[in-house]
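Hello forum,

I keep getting stuck at the same step: I have a sequence, I want structure tokens, and every attempt I make locally crashes halfway through. Rather than fight my setup again tonight, could one of you with a working pipeline run this one for me? It's a single chain of 286 residues.
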Amino acid sequence: MAETPTPRWRLPRGKWLFAVYGAFGLAVFVAFMAASFPYNDAISSLLAQYQMKLVYQSQRMSPPIGARLEDVRLLSTVGSSPQLLLHSSDVTLAPALGSLLVGRPAIKLSADLYGGTFNATVYQHAGATDLSFVVSGLSLSESAPLRQLGAKLSGNVSGVGSAQLNSPSLPDNRAHMTLDGRNVAVEIAEGAPPIRLGTVSGTLSLENGTLTLHEVEARGGDLEVNAEGTIHFEPEVAQSDVEMRLSMVPTPSGREHFGLFLKLLPHPPEEGPYELTGPLMSPSLS
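Reply #2:
Ran it on my machine without issues. Output:
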């Protein structure tokens, strides 16, 4: 006896056409909404309340949806003349599609930044701006903010974090970041060889104008370092107050290359942690 063929589920012809038209209509709707998304208005409105503005050389479409900005500069509008905060050769913006459907503006951002990448989702609610971000491979030596502070660092930094921005005043904002640095080195004196810190890990949190370091560690370099403490930011960043405790154990390479430097410390490393206190750019070690 021949086997009875298994019946196949089929959609009636008219309903197939309905489904195709529906999918096509949804695609057109999404494309229209993305193409007409007010990037300039959204960005200008977002940054103006924090006394910042974005300028760029050119804009073009970024398939499948979104916009691509080239030669982008983020400027502070505080004071008589704008001050450069960040520069990126290439920034891509796209609406978060879920936000288009619920009427809650949100933007996805991807930028080339200091030899690495910065990706974030930014949205507003109740007068505040929230963002979640991922940074990957940022070069410390290329960082303009660090150079402006006179810091001489090298290596790459990656991390994951979030922030809530409520006003231009730093004490009103908060942020949290998990840090992962590779091949980090610091130059402590002009002409002196850099101290290799190797792999640096830990978490940073910002609240009430204070940056707190939690279990920051450096391994695999000239020094094995553990650091915890705070930086209380002032309007003049260089005058911000540092209160930090450091334990430093030199590795064999550290003793070989920095034996003289170790003798200049307030006490031998094995006698206990050091206290780093004072202005950010000229703290004292005890």
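Residues 13-29 have pLDDT under 50 and may be disordered. If your local run keeps crashing, start a new thread with the error log.
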